[in-house]
Amino acid sequence: MFTKILIANRGEIACRVIATARKMGIATVAVYSDADKDARHVKLADEAVHIGAAPSRESYLVAERIIAAAKQTGAQAVHPGYGFLSENEAFAKRCEDEGIAFIGPKAHSIAAMGDKIASKKLANEAQVNTIPGYNEAISGPEQAVEIAKSIGYPVMIKASAGGGGKGLRVAFNDKEAFEGFASCQNEARNSFGDDRIFIEKFVQEPRHIEIQILGDSHGNVVYLNERECSIQRRHQKVIEEAPSPFISDATRKAMGEQAVQLAKAVKYQSAGTVEFVVGKDQDFYFLEMNTRLQVEHPVTECITGLDLVEQMIRVAAGEKLAITQEEVKRDGWAIECRINAEDPFRNFLPSTGRLVRFQPPQASMWQGDTEHLHGVRVDTGVYEGGEIPMFYDSMIAKLIVHGSDRNDAIAKMREALNAFVIRGISSNIPFQAALLAHPKFKSGDFNTGFIAEHYGHGFHAEDVPHSDPDFLVALAAHMNRRYRGRAATISGQMQGHELKVSADYCVVVLGAEGQNQYHDVHVSDFAKESRASTVAVNGKTYAFKSETPMRALCVQGQCNGKPFTAQVERGTAKNPLALRVVHNGTQIETLVLSPRGAQLHQLMPYKAPPDLSKFLLSPMPGLLVDVAVQQGQKVQAGEKLAVIEAMKMENILFAAQDGVVSKITAGKGDSLAVDDIILEFE
Prior knowledge:
Layout: E1 4-7, H1 11-23, E2 27-33, H2 40-44, E3 47-52, H3 63-73, E4 77-79, H4 89-97, E5 101-102, H5 107-114, H6 116-125, E6 133-134, H7 141-151, E7 155-163, E8 166-171, H8 174-192, E9 197-201, E10 207-215, E11 221-233, E12 236-242, H9 249-265, E13 270-278, E14 284-290, H10 297-304, H11 308-316, E15 333-340, E16 342-343, E17 349-350, E18 353-354, E19 357-359, E20 376-380, E21 387-388, E22 395-403, H12 406-418, E23 421-423, H13 429-437, H14 439-443, H15 450-454, H16 469-487, E24 504-509, E25 517-527, E26 532-537, E27 540-545, E28 554-559, E29 562-570, E30 579-583, E31 586-593, H17 595-601, E32 615-617, E33 622-627, E34 634-635, E35 640-646, E36 649-654, E37 659-664, E38 671-672, E39 677-681
Parallel strand pairs: 1-2, 1-4, 2-3, 4-5
Antiparallel strand pairs: 6-9, 7-8, 7-9, 10-11, 10-13, 11-12, 12-15, 13-14, 15-22, 16-17, 18-21, 19-23, 20-22, 24-25, 24-31, 25-26, 26-27, 27-28, 28-29, 29-30, 30-31, 32-39, 33-35, 33-38, 34-37, 35-36, 37-39
Helix pairs in contact: 4-5, 5-6, 7-8, 12-13
């Protein structure tokens, strides 16, 4: 067994590998860029080596520097994680040539299966079901259009070396095929250094279901059940679960056997994933094979009780698999939510900056630990006070729960999301909460078009209605009474003029454009010792009891005898006197006033925000890679104006209305902050 390994990656996956290595008594070496010098994976590793500047092409994608770091530190093996060089055939071969074990498949397997064009040909030869398409590299957008028309729209345009939703577009007509090819090629070139593109038929109403396989160097291969990954936005997975709520045992067995058959055909060893697209009648087609560890591997670890990273290390060290196919378990139900640094209320634009507060829910399962299951696990590479840089992926944590069945897992995940405190940047937690509460998700009736179908207009506050809005109002009143009660006990009050705390209030729920709601509430039975009170609002009664300290943002307790978890925060950016309440993805901002104060508040005029329609503002921090118009140019609504690159994704900005460009204030190559002006209109 190895005594020291190097992790050629960053973020949560680097931390994940370190956890298992530490359990196995193996020393670890981290590598880091300028942007990651204070990163969590650097702090956790036994050693760390600087490998270059912040952009991944100058650090994490430079194989020579990683090999040099392994030699410098005496690391006997390299674990590539996922992304970066994890599916790079040349890197895997170079490691082996240098006498460094690659904790992943052999170079020939990566060459055969990591390349999507080659893997599809091999799948055909191995008699695995495949989707109709054009499997040769395409020379340009004109050829892409002709091929798309011959296959029949809609088609999927994909980068051969792609992954993680990058270098992928769906086209429904010639224009989208032409533009999609160019965008895919640019993203693939920037992210993977390989701009080959292919096209295949897009199966409508599909489900994305993948089979986890594990092979060793002795010819043994097993499949570790399936993962349901159909909840996707822009072809990036949002929620994953195991097992799938859709397929039958017979389909599971057939898919698993085909995945094993394909793996054996290329003498696959290590962990890998065979992805399938599954139709409504459970007909399935090979999609691609990921010759690496997947982001969503924790859900498989939960239901099988296996540490996949440990299995990868043992296989790389030459050991045989310790389990047979008959011994693979399927225990309970696991769900993973990807917590991303993005603002769902601003069309999911990336959000970068400092994590002012980062408090994940209390964990009862941990990376590398297969003894404690049926609980909550958090995989992350960040910490409170750390920075979320613009150079890398937007994912800041993975939240995993393991329940006895699917309903139990959903309930656990909703409570865990309620307890997840993130401040300083925006996150997609409200969106995750909305997905989990959606009736079709809860019933398992969804496909890869679920988000586009139900949230195609974007995501707004009204898309996550609360089942009991009065509960939020009552909680605001309860917490306000606690704050007032504490204020009444502060020393220094004059005798005979002590602060008297009222029982009657008006909770003002602040709405958009001054459309506020006013709720009269009565707070009784206040008990400082038990931190309890009873709130009457709109004919309902809510009896609260919570031992949570008032300084905490996450409030846990009981309401009418049932447990709850919510977040309550005093003071917001817009109003320092406001009380923000967040529960099950719903957020309200309130003012808790005296009845007379509420009457006066209703008389306050609404101040409209300034008109910014004459400006094109940067909606996110990023690099301006293209300005597609010139000064004096007439533009029409929907016309491309500029392209901003952030977190390895290209974001195209379009004109919202017809106009004439009067001034261009930013140029190609400029680094932009949120709301920086790019151009102005007459």
